[in-house]
Amino acid sequence: MFVSHLSCPKCQATYESEKPIQLCRCGSPLLVAYDMAKAAKHFSKKDLARRKADLWRYRELLPVKKEENIVSLGEGMTPLLPLKNLGSEINLPHLYLKDEGIIPTGTFKARGAAVGVSRAKELGIRVLAMPTNGNAGAAWALYCAPAKIKAVIVMPEDAPPIPRGECAISGASLYLVNGLISDAGKIVAKAVADYGWFDASTLKEPYRIEGKKTMGLEIAEQFDWKLPDVILYPTGGGVGIIGIYKALMELKELGWIDGKFPRLVAVQSSGCAPIVKAWREKKTESEFWKDARTLAFGITVPKALGDFLVLDAIYKTGGCAVAVDDADILKAEQLLASREGTFVCPEGAATLSAAMQLCRDGWIRPEEKVVLLNTGSGLKYPETVQVSPPVLNPDDRIPADG
Ligand SMILES: Cc1ncc(COP(=O)(O)O)c(C=O)c1O
Ligand SMILES: [Zn+2]
Each residue of 129-157: pLDDT tens digit? Predict the structure, then answer.
């Protein structure tokens, strides 16, 4: 394990990493720092060839010390699918989908949960509480079960129903709130203050992001360390995009990649687009988005604690932020299934819609290598597909045109 300390990206304060910790005293999230010189000596690309195809293959860049503390359900090394049919249709022949739809619990949240819960177990945490839009709560509840950590999950009443079942069956305590994730966060903060529980809210602990950063490590490895030009990411709390940027910085420090970073694109829904608004106004922080509403429920985050880090990653890579309408998200979901056979979640579908918009605007050029990040399976969102097939009687026939 090569963790050297925790550091604050806002005020540069540093903290030791062997005790449970939440935010910096200035209120900013903390990030894990590694002794990169030491890591570079002990970890080489060649080591990867012998390792299992899961995210623990990058263990030198992860914060869990002892193997016995690792809680794993086989997460990581998801496929990077070339989207040949769609690519030729929209004149982007080098279009790829990093597909998190087949990971345990059905969304990329499994990565943050695997690393976050393993580290929580290592630090002796017994009870944790988490506000969520559904998928993160489901993943943390399920990973907490084998770690023997009690999980208390609070999600909006309007969140899609499947994560509720995942929380319930894992034995977690589940509460619904008549409000948004920001309201769930306030309720969790009160419980944490009252009972001394660990607060596992987005970016209020430093380890979830380490799990999510493995998406960036995998993309680099899957492209044989020659980076794509653009990565589009559905952005809610922003942990994924911050994590991908952190992964690229660490790979650069290791000397495993060089040249330009991919331009990172934060994709949001026009029903909740605080990062897009801040980017358009060239701001370094976002403002609370009132009346947030989108069917891409995972990205309904009116104000992200790590907004300044998301915006920094966009500015530093020459990226941008794009808002897409719900109707276009549904069209993109259908396009991906009908052309490529992937049933993606609406958050993932939003990235296709954004890529099409950016192509039309000339911001993405046809020769560029472009990665869409599908953060989860469409199977978790059955309500996004309306089906009313004809019902046959046993002696009916199917018409000749199918
Ligand atoms: C399917 C899905 N995609 C994307 C996101 C946004 O995640 P992030 O916090 O990394 O921005 C979420 C968060 O709930 C989600 O469930
Ligand atoms: Zn600070």
Answer: 999 999 999 999 999 999 999 999 999 99
